[in-house]
Design goal:
Two copies of one chain form a homodimer. Helix content of chain A is 74%, strand content 3%. Chain A is mostly helical. The interface between A and B is medium-sized, with 33 and 33 residues. The structure holds a DNA duplex (30 and 30 nucleotides).
Chain lengths: 128, 128
DNA sequence: CTAATCCTTAAAGTTACCTCTAAGTCAAGT
DNA sequence: ACTTGACTTAGAGGTAACTTTAAGGATTAG
């Protein structure tokens, strides 16, 4: 069992953010102590791992909340969840391919400017 | 020479956004007709291409504006600009690698849920 | 000539994702 | 016991990158 601070340190999310995620329906059903303190289990951490994973690949919190809600409805939503993940995966792959094309252009520009810089410095060097 | 609408269609940015970018110092020095209408040249389009490229790889408009300002200062800022591009390129590469790791996890989860789905459907199929 | 397009400023609104504050109470670890 | 950390609600504040609105006037292409 972990306190909110433990989880904050493990994940890099602030305690504020963790409560916020809970409020938004991202990480649901976290246990509480008698006093009302959140007690995160390893299973919670794993679920949070998937949440972060989806978030970091660009899924909106809203969509993640939808995925979580489906999960909470049980087995009969498996098909829909698989479909969501599949689509998300495709979109990530597409985005990465696009990114690669942009990166190639940045690289090209960088080389271009590097060439100009070299030329400029030689010009300056020989002039001194 | 292109009107703002032409450029909007070519780039997918709205005319509003183009004016906004100009105001923010991203695309500077666009020619005007006697009447004050913007007249974009091919060179403007090329500069805009680089701007979009940087933006689409995650550089903030603020940083792009800084890059553009340096460009406008001329050759003596070449070193700094090359440095900016180099750093940006590194960060994009790092982000893509991170993304790939997250994507692998999504793929893993997808396979896991696919398996569960298959099992579930067989169970349901045999029960009917 | 006329319809469609463009110009301006200034500011308010939007979406996403937090981030922080306040005020007051309560719990846990040493 | 005491200090540190956790709890609540509710709402304000913040940033990035737009997006829209309004109002009125000027320009341009056919």
């Amino acid at each position: 069992m972990y306190t909110i601070q433990d989880v904050s340190e493990k994940t890099g999310l602030t305690a504020h953010t963790l409560r916020y995620y809970e409020k938004e329906g991202l990480l649901t059903g976290v246990e509480r102590s008698q006093g009302g303190f959140r007690q995160y289990s390893d299973e919670d951490l794993e679920r949070l791992g998937l949440i972060c994973c989806l978030k970091n690949t660009g899924m909106s919190l809203h969509e993640i909340a939808r995925f979580v809600a489906l999960t909470n409805e049980g087995e009969q939503t498996l098909r829909e969840r698989v479909e969501m993940l599949r689509e998300h995966r495709e979109s990530v792959i597409a985005r990465m391919a696009e990114m690669q094309r942009y990166l190639d252009k940045v690289t090209w520009k960088l080389n271009f400017f590097s060439g100009k810089l070299k030329e400029y410095e030689e010009r300056k060097g020989s002039a001194s």
